[in-house]
Design a protein that fits this description.
Layout (H helix, E strand, L loop, with lengths): L15 H11 L8 H14 L3 E5 L2 H11 L7 E5 L8 H5 L3 E5 L10 H10 L5 E5 L8 H11 L3 E4 L7 E2 L2 E2 L6 E5 L12 E5 L2 H11 L22 H11 L2 H18 L6 E3 L6 E2 L6 E4 L7 H10 L5 E2 L15 E2 L8 H8 E3 L8 H14 L3
Parallel strand pairs: 2-3, 2-4, 3-14, 4-5, 5-8
Antiparallel strand pairs: 1-9, 6-7, 6-11, 8-9, 10-12, 12-15, 13-15
Helix pairs in contact: 1-8, 2-8, 3-7, 5-6, 10-12
The structure holds pyridoxal-5'-phosphate.
Pyridoxal-5'-phosphate binds next to helix 3.
């Protein structure tokens, strides 16, 4: 008999989603606008503490619009972390700007403030800085914001993985001039696909909604003075989001429990540690990751193979952008100016463990014993 599949992270639905969808059908609001879209924006703003929100078709679309609104264009430099998902950086290239990749620091795995300082020495005038809260762990925001302030450069927060994570008591996504969230299928809450752009500046979210609906000028006929996009969230999708949002805190608590369970279960394996959390934050633990000690004969591939043999899904750490064929021509900045990349080191020694909140105690036991066996425990 085929072994039960244990997932990395997949949608968890609760039923309320269908109530909002049904309402949309019953009132024939099956369109990229409608009461669910407006309500989901208000509810996300209220939840995160952002003043304003614009519901979009994807997190990637939200990053793209954030850059457009900040005026990023051909010839501009944009700083972004190397250790992230490519969706953080693709929109920089959509706008023909030049990404410069910043190395990670080892304490949270996110953009290194030291490397960021060095990047400003080499490129004093970037158009924007994009920071990511990887796997849900807040970056060193105080340090990064201070550097951005000094140079008067706007910060965009890619909080696609960190919805519900807080830093110094405030939601990630609400620190930068613009923040973005994703509701893709494997994120902490999902709408099957979708995103949100948030800002304390209403002009920015208005501009996002305008650009996302083909940039129609306020005229009776269809008149356009700018290039627009079809990036708006539909009223059906927003209905799923409203139902999911009711369970976000519960999802976070379960994700954090999974992380704690792994941490305790591997405490006696000196070769294995969990991804570090920022002590100044409260991470949503979207994905729990493990890091194997340098020089250990066990590799992440060996652990992933052992898990796969039990039909358990795991995943490598994001491959750093500066190592990607499509991005390798761009500059990469480390904290000490050498080629010793912390991002590459984390990629080489780390892996993502199953973090699906529907995994049972028995599933967790099997995952844990399989990993432990790799280290002869
Ligand atoms: C998922 C993700 C995105 C993209 O969001 P989509 O909604 O899938 O477009 C962007 N950045 C990071 C870090 C992500 O993990």
């Amino acid at each position: 008999m085929e072994k039960k599949r244990i997932y990395l992270s997949c949608p968890t639905m609760h039923g309320e989603e269908q109530k909002f969808i049904k309402e949309a059908f019953d009132t024939n609001w099956v369109a990229p606008l409608g009461p669910n879209v407006n309500a989901f924006e208000k509810e996300m703003a209220a939840y995160t503490g952002a003043a304003h929100a614009s519901a979009l078709s994807a997190g990637t679309a939200a990053i793209h619009l954030a850059l457009r609104i900040l005026g990023v264009g051909e010839g501009d430099v944009v700083f972004a972390p190397s250790l992230t998902f490519s969706a953080t950086c693709n929109p920089i290239v959509y706008e023909k700007a030049t990404p410069v990749f910043i190395d990670s620091e080892p304490d949270t795995w996110n953009m290194s403030p030291e490397a960021l300082k060095r990047a400003f020495e080499k490129y004093p005038d970037p158009k924007a800085v994009v920071v990511v809260h990887l796997y849900g762990t807040p970056a060193k925001l105080s340090e990064i914001m201070e550097i951005c302030r000094e140079h008067n450069v706007p910060l965009v927060e890619d909080a696609a993985e960190s919805l519900s994570s807080t830093y110094k008591g405030k939601h990630t996504g609400t620190f930068g001039k613009i923040g973005i969230y994703s509701f893709n299928g494997n994120k902490i809450i999902t709408t099957s696909g979708g995103g949100m752009l948030v800002s304390d500046d209403e002009e920015i979210t208005k501009q996002a909604t305008f650009l996302a609906t083909q940039a129609r000028d306020p005229a009776r006929y269809y008149q356009h003075s700018q290039i627009g996009y079809n990036y708006r969230m539909s009223n059906i999708t927003a209905g799923i989001g409203r139902g999911q949002l009711l369970h976000l805190e519960e999802h976070k608590a379960l994700k954090k429990k999974i992380y704690q369970q792994y941490k305790e279960a591997f405490a006696d394996i000196p070769e294995l540690s969990m991804n570090p959390l920022n002590p100044e934050g409260d991470a949503n633990c979207w994905l729990s990751c493990a890091l194997i000690k340098e020089g250990c004969s066990v590799t992440p591939d060996m652990v992933m193979d052992a898990l796969a043999a039990e039909n358990i899904e795991s995943r490598p750490i994001w491959k750093p952008m500066h190592l990607q064929p499509v991005f390798e021509k761009y500059d990469f900045i480390t904290a000490d100016g050498t080629n010793n990349s912390i991002a590459a080191d984390i990629f080489n020694r780390g892996l993502c463990l199953p973090s699906d909140i529907k995994n049972t105690e028995d599933d967790m036991k099997l995952i844990i014993s399989t990993v432990r066996r790799c280290f002869n425990k």
